Structure formats: structure tokens, C-alpha cells
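[Meeting: bench + compute handoff]

Bench side (C.D.) handed over the final construct sequence. Compute side (W.E.) agreed to return the predicted structure before the next meeting so the bench team could plan truncations. Sequence as handed over:
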Amino acid sequence: MTGIDAAPLNWSDLGVSELVPTGTVTLLLADVEGSTRLWESQPDEMTAAFATLDRTLAEVVGAHDGVRPIEQGEGDSFVIAFGRASDAVACALDLQRASLAPIRLRVGLHTGEVQLRDEANYIGPTINRTARIRDLAHGGQTVLSGTTTDLVSDRLPVGAWLAELGMYPVRDLPRPERVVQLCHPDIRNEFPPLRTAKSSRSHNLPAQLTSFVGRAQQLEEVCRLLVDNRLVTLTGAGGAGKTRLAIEAANALSEEFDDGLWWIDLAAIADPAVVTLTIARTLGLPDQPRRSPLETVQRFVGEREILLLLDNCEHLLDACGDVIIRLLNSCPQLTILATSRETIAVSGEVTWRVPSLTLEDEAVALFIERAQRARPTFHVTGDDLALVVDVCRRLDGMPLAIELAAARVRALSLHQITDSLNDRFRLLTGGARNTMRRQQTLRASVDWSHALLTDAEQVLFRRLGVFMDGFDFDAAQAVAATNEAEQFQILDQLSLLVDKSLVTADEESGAMRYRLLETVRQYALEKLAESGEATLMRARHRDHYVATAVRLEGEDRLIGWAEQETGNLRAAHAWSIDCGEFEPALRLISALQRLWEKRGRMREGIAAFDLAFNDKRYRDDDVAAAVWIRAVADRSILTAWTADSASLERGEEALAAARELGDQGLIVSCLAACGGLAYYSPAVSQAYWVDAIDLARKADDRSKLCYYLSCLAVATNVAGQPLASQLAAEEGRLVADAIGDDFVSRHCRIWLAVALAWRGGATDGDVVIRAVSEEAHAAGEPMLELFALTCESNSFAYRGTVSASRAKAKQAHEVSIAMGGFHDNTVHITLALADLAAGDAAAAKTACEAALALTTPDQMPYIRALTPMTVALLSCGELAAARRWADETVTMTNGNYQMNALVARAHVALAQGGRDQAERDAHDALVLALATSAFLHVPEAFEALGRCAADHGNHRHAVRLFGAAAAARTVMGVARWPVYAIGYDDAVEQCRKAMGEDDFNTAWTEGSAMSTEEAIAYAQRGRGERKRPASGWESLTPTERDVVRHAVDGLGNKDIAERMFISPRTVQTHLTHVYAKLGFTSRIQLIQEAARHA
């Protein structure tokens, strides 16, 4: 017992320690139930039993490090102290498991700070409370205080568990105590209700044969209401647990009512006239001459402090209300707790709606506890827990439904129970025989509530079954009221359904939202089907939500409304598809376009469109032209966002139809759709976007203008034109900011940052992109959050900030996974760049392979341009593979992407010893850099040329290029990746030794003093006589050489065009130029010349 203060103490032979613990200690107090009676009736057995008890105590106290003050206790009671609460629990369990018949021990445990009266005895509040807790127990029962429970919950003996018994007043002590029972398969676990502090107090509360699970906070709230108010009514749906909660509250407050408390069950009473008679009989009052039953009850209660629990009042509201008012007015100390599915609606009533159990703890705990009662071998594993949570969720946390479902574990697995919930009224039967008939099946419970409705209320109730996930008043009026009279009455009737606990009402964002619990909704749907109104109501439901979505389409509140009404919107769409009514389905999905885009739910929108378009019954001619044209355009835009494959032909078909209609708005939308579908055919895509932007300008539609400019920024980026992308993004951002379109503004800022980075303005790009990911996350725009994170990660990678780059890439990957793999190929490219910055060649190669594996054929040219596979293979030392990849990439790319590919191939050529190839590629890359204003990879081009110059012995020229590269990196804020240090350090050192320190520094300074453009001009001048001549082999451009290479391999013009992603006519043009420059007239001559230069 290290760490526990102790005082010396003398012990008998039964003592187990020489110290009694003080400070914070767990005390075990026990006595023998009915000891006096047993000594009188069984003296011999008691003598033997007490000898066994003494031996048992000597064993278990020592075994569990306890201390037994020999002088503490009176009669047949004893005290044991423990330094650890878990030891106390284990000791109590051993005592209860021991064979001590006819002795049955009452054991109480409590933890607190103790005081010593003298050397051998405890005194004070802790031992007093322990004794009072023990007094609550029955023989064979062990009860713990809440304090001790909290200490041992996770350290129980093997096989043991705790059962909550509730809050109980403790005799002579100021506050009630949470009491918990220790249970184990080896001991008795079923007991009557705890002994109340005043056994003489009258009550008839029914003994509870099952534990009270959860609801600690609700129990406390109800108790507080009862202390402060004389009439409290617990309301709620059938099966919500009103009766059990009321009984537990009455038990917990029994100390407050000195003259007793009584439970009056009115469920079986059909005649309102016998309500008072039932109360009188429950109180044990006989008939009295010349007095009515009510007068008899009033005379009996009088000034007494009594709690009456009137249970199940909903079918006797008038009678109950009259009795309650009369009793409260004539009996000043009386308190009434009522339960009802509907408020009693009398003066002074405080109503409290009993909520469903919380899913993650209370509902699951109830299911598990009741399932273990039904099948003691039932245990929940990690996989099973998700099924239990799903069952409880689908049952809305309703205690009755959960208990009925749990009872099914006797015959069904959890999977079977989950599957059977589709027919829940058939599954959820078979309640305990000692419960009311209406509580033995779920259907009976709801039948009871339904029977109490008026005809008009029943009509409204069944019609409300068409709503999914709740509804507002406007929706209820639009759907469920079919004529003016019903519209006028619906508010009152809806309020009555709320009062009768068939509809729940909660305030959300300043407005009331209504909902039927799913079990109740299924019942309502059955009644709706029986009425013959199902088709009419579903159609009205669909029409309301389509009309509302269309009306809100241009408003900011569309998205919030749509997210709240997701269940209803899906139901409306599904009904339209099921009925083959495709036009309203398409109108609904188009109206939600902003939701799909802003929330990153593009694939959900595409799937919704496809349910109509792919249906065998669908025909364009059966739908208004404007509807299907817009639907095609909207679907195409969603497809462009996801980068999924789609046919441009369908978009062009819609565009032609829009032009035939002469609808400028549809024409613009279709142009944009075609532009999105053609993203990976840059020239085609840009033409569509330019036309769409022109029309948007003419129409002064700034919303579409900024959106289309942001898309043009994407298209020009795909085309390898960063300057054009920058200009489009900048204008789009200005327009978006002017009209307050934050979504488009963020989209423009992302592509502006990308363009600036390619142009060598990484620092400026960082300023633009900074905070976009946080803004997008806060706004619920995962798509833009993903794009911003990849942009930030790439920027960090180029700057050499490896940890930050990988962190952002990891975040992007998590967002992509959450969106179902959205743009996962570009995320892997981002991971590859971070790996290259870290010098992790193998990881970079793996990431590149993953990116390519996730890429569709039409995406391949663009994704290949972005993927740093050449550099990854170079880093891995796979030079032949790197060269093949570089050669193919150069032929497939344009603009800044081709410039990047040329730089990478130049470094591969250097590694292979191909200095001339490296020099050509580096010079060609610089030409492209100037043409596209893309300077990001210019430093690598300078360094490649510098290494070539060093090999030629032109050390001064080489050092100037190295200095220019260093200066460009400083200006752009980028670092040299480890792969590009290969050969670079040796070349620099070679020049330093050849020139001497002073000349080296002078040349370096001369190079670093030049701007990037000046350095490019200097490098091109340094090409001297090696500038491309007008004729001969050296006059061929890189693209012309690639065409020649494919021709030499035996490919025809069409095959070359497919390989290089250009048209056959373009291939022929290149060959014509080649023949002219070389002076050839046949392909044979070309093949021979190519072989000579191989």
C-alpha cells in the first residue's frame, strides 16, 4: 500500500495488516440480512456459517490487500478498507461467491476521504454514506456508489459487469446517491427494488425486473421539474419509455414525499367515469357512504405530502384533466406526475417530451443489455457494434422497438435483424407477457395512438408519411392539403399531431421543422396505401419539391435548403423515375446544379441524371426540348469537374438543338458544356469557352461570365498556356468578387496560383492561394479544398519544403478519399512531387505509376504531362526507361508541358552521355519558355546547358549559366531537387578548379546579375553557330524529329497522328517541311538519313 498514509494499529489473529489506511480510501461495509431471525431459527447452522465467514474473511481480505479494523462494526457487520477501489470490488465478489448459507451478505462500497476516531475506528461522512448505501441492498446484493463506480468501470473482475440502479435518496444525508449493482454469472443478479431509506413509507411502484439503462440526464431533469412544480406530464410517442422514466423519477424522489407515492395505471380503463374510482382503489380506500370516490380521495390526501403517478392518460384526457384540477386545488401538498401521448392541457401543467435514446451510448447499451437477457451468450464484437448502431438508428432510438428487436437475438443474427427491419411491424413482436398488450408489438403501440385520432387527423397523419427526413409547414400545406378547407385547418391539425406525439417538432434556424419517427412513418405509409391516396400524395410531394428547387435555383439559400431536404429530394426524384415521368426528374436535378458543384457531389448529380437518360423508357421527344438540353449541358459540366470520360457528340447535339430553339441562355450553357467535355482537346475546348464568354459578356450575365472565365483558365492551363490561364483567372476573380460569388472567386484564385507558379511567380502564387483551402473547407466545398491543397503542396515541393509539401498532399489525399477518389490521379502526382523534393526516388516512381493507373485514355496526354515519371525514373537510375518515357512525353505535350518534358529529357541525356541531345533539348526548352512565359523549369535548363559547356571546356560560359540558374531560383523561390544535383556539383567544382576562385566568382556574379529573360537571351547567343540552320538534319524541330522517328518505325500518317495526338493532316505538313529541309523526295531517303544520325 505504497503512497497511503497510515497509523499503527493492533490486530487480532484475523487482521491482515498492521496499518489502517487513511486519506482517500474505498470502504466495504457488510452485514447479514435477517441475522436475528436466523440465530433464532437455525442456531447450529449459523454457528457453522459464521465460522466459515471468519475463515473466508481472513482469506479474501489478505488476497485483495484489504485492511479490516477489528473493532469496527457492530453485531454481525464488518468493515474492510482498501487503497484501490478495484481490490474492494474483487473482494466483495469473492465474498458473495463464497458458500455461506444460510448467511446472505448485504454489501455496500463507497470511496472518499476517511477520518480516524481513534487508532482503530473510522468516523465521518465517508463511512456514514457507505453504511447508508449498504442499507439499500438486499441479502446477496453488492451495491456501489457513483464515486466508486467511476473508479472501477474499466477494472472489473473477469466476467463481472455493472448495472445502473438509478439515483436514490440516502437516509439522513443531504444528497441522493447514484447506486450501481455489481453483477456476475456466479452470483444472484435479480433483486427487488432497493430498500428505501424509510421502509415505512407507503408506495406501490411496480418492481422493475430489468435494469434502467441510460437516461441519467433526463432522470435528473424530470426530478428537478417535480421538485419545482406540482403537475408534470411526460409526453412522447408510444414506446418512448415514458412509464419507466416516470417510475424511476418517483423512486428517486421518494424521500421528498413523506406520506407516500402511488402508481395508478389507466391503460386498461375505457370508461372515463371510473378514473377517480381507480385512483381510490389504488390508494386502498373503501367506498364511503354519501361520498363520491373523488371526495374520498380528496379527504384522504388532504394535507399529506403525496406523489400520484397517473400513467397512460391519453385516452382519458378530459376525465384526467378534471380529476387533476380538483385534486390539486383541494390538496395543497399533492404532486402529480402524469404520462400521456398527448398533453392534458390543464392550468399549471408542465409538459416534458421524452426524447429518444442517444444512439452511440444509451440506445446501444439498451440493445446489448436486453439482448444478453434474451441470450446470455450474446456478445458484441467490433464488427457487430456497427450493426447494433444501425439497428438503433433505424429504430430512432425508441426503447420499446429496441427491446423488441433485441429479443430477436434468440433466433436471428444481427445481420438478419437488420435485413428484417424493412418489415419492422412483423419483426418487432413478442414483447414480455407481463407488459400491456399494446406494448407487446410495435404495431399495437402505434395502433393505439392512431385510434385516438379524429378522422381529419388520421387523413393528415397518413399523408405526412410521404415526407422523408422531416418537412416544414409550407411543405405540409402544399402536399397534404388538397383543398382550401384543408389548407385552413392544417395548422391546427398538425399541432394536434405534435401534441399527440405522432409528429415531432423542433426549431431549426428560427423555423419549426416536423418529423415522423421512421417507425411511425412506415405505419402512416401503410395507412396511405390502404386509403388509395398514395399516388396522388407522392405526385404532390414531387411537384412541391421540384417547384421549390426551381424557385430557389438562383438564390443563396438553395444549398442549405437542399441539404436539409436531401431525403425528400431523393424521394421526389425516385418517384419520377419509377413512374417514367422523366421531365420533372431532370428539372429537379438541373435546379440542384449549384449543390452538386459547390458540395463536391458531382457524381451524385451525374448518377441522378443517368437514372433518367439511361432508362429504357426515356426518349428526348417525350421531354420538353429546353429541359433535356439543359440537363445534357448540366451533366456535361459535372462530368468536366470529375474528369470522367464523356462523349462530346451528345453535348454538340444539345448545342444544335439549343440553336434551333434560339434560346441564348441554353446556347451559352451548351457551349460551356462542350468546352468542359473537350477539356483534354485544348484547341477545341478553348474555342467553345471563348464563344460562351463572348455571349455571356453580350448578355451582361456576370455570374456566367466569371464562371466561364474560371473554366477557360483551366482549359488554357491544360493547353500549356500559363499566361493565358493567368489572364482568364484574374478577370474571372475580379468579376466574381464584384458580384460576391465566393465559390468562383476561390476557383479562379486556385488556377491563378497555378499559372503564376508555372510562370516563375511561386511566391506571388503563394499569396494568392494562401487560405483558400481553409476557406473552402469552412464553406463546405471539398472540391476546391482538394485543388487548393494540391496547389499548396506542389508549391512547397518546388521550394524544397518537404514536410509541408507532404502534409498538404496527405490532406489532399484524405479529401479525395472522402469524395470517393475524386481526382485521385492528380493527388498521386502531388505525392510524387513531394517525394522528388525529398529525394525519395522509389516512392516518387510508385506515386507516378498510381497516378497513371487511375487515368482514363482521354485524360492521358494532360496527366502524362503533369506526371514527373521521367524525373522519377532518372532518380531511380532507370535511364533507358526514362529516355523512352521522355521521348513519348515530348511528342504528346504542348506549351509549358513540352518545355518541362524537354528539360527532363535533357538531364536524362546528360546521364546517358548524350551531350548534343541535352544541349538541343535545353535550348528548345528555353525557346518554349519565352513563347509560353513559363519559367518554372528554366533553372534546370540553364544548369543542363552549363554542364554541356563545362564538358566543352567553356568554363566561363558554364559558370555564368550556373549563376543565372541560382539567381532565377532565388527570384522564383524554388529549390534544386536532389535528382538535379547529380552531375551539377561536379561540374561546378570542375569549373572552379579550372578558372580559379576569382575568375569563377566573377563569372558567377555576371550570370547572377542577369534577369531570367536576359539569361535566356545570353544562353541562346551562346549557341553561336549551333543555332538551328535553315536546312539539313540540324534544321529539324523537335516535333519534326519525332515525326521522322515514328515514320522510320514504319508507322503511317494515321498511326503517327494517334501516337502524337495530332491530326493526320498535321503529320503530312510536318513531313512536307522535313522533305523540303532535307531536299528529299521519298520516305526511303528519309529512313536512310535518320539511320545515319541515329
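W.E. noted at the follow-up: The longest helix spans residues 43-63. C.D. will use this when planning the next construct.
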